[in-house]
Prior knowledge:
Number of helices: 7
Family: Belongs to the nicotinamide ribonucleoside (NR) uptake permease (TC 4.B.1) family.
Main location: membrane
Largest sheet: 2 strands, antiparallel
Radius of gyration: 18 Å
Low-confidence stretches: 207-213
Transmembrane segments: 12-33, 40-58, 103-124, 136-162, 174-193
Helix content: over 70%
Shape: globular
Protein name: Nicotinamide mononucleotide transporter family protein
Keywords: Cell membrane, Membrane, Transmembrane, Transmembrane helix, Transport
Amino acid sequence: MSGLNSEAFTLLGQHIIWSDMTGNILGLITLALGWRRSLWTWPVQFLSGAVLFVAFYGHLAGSAGKQVVVMAVALYGWWQWSRDRGRAADGHIAPRFATWRERAAMVAAAAAGTVAVALLFEAVPSLSWDPWPDAYIFVGTVVAMYAQARSMVEFWIAWLLVDLVGVPLNFANGYAFSGFVYVIYGALVLWGLRDWWLRSRADARHTLEGVPA
């Protein structure tokens, strides 16, 4: 474990840690696989969470705890996509837009969850250096992954909202590679959002026309 948390190299004055770098590279692969709607998205996400748990354990307990939740949701996503495969002609899951009820439920859950987790972090200072932004990222990540597991296009938007806070928070806490990767995440998320958006529209149009998607 100590080897994983050792310094890999220095970039622009920032110390890059092996576990931080490896976990986030796996995270980028996860995002690319998610864009391709591949079932491998979830095993790679689980592995990324496990490596980042090592990166944060003993230093940022709240972030380490987030990775445990990420791994649990990854298992749920793998199970859900395994059930939904074949709905599209290419054998992958078929993206869809969430209903207004689903959107309202996710926004409410994100708001309530962020407040609850932030209050927990404030009550137990050892869990987080930045309770509110860390809680926002924690809960936002879970909501985004849940929406992805349910094949909702909106999961990309949720990731963008997480990125807006994740970039400065990671740089501030000394996880430079995470910060750099979050910037790349933003570009990949925009690309993935466009692809899923267009694909969901095409699938809906084919369904209305009675043509297999």
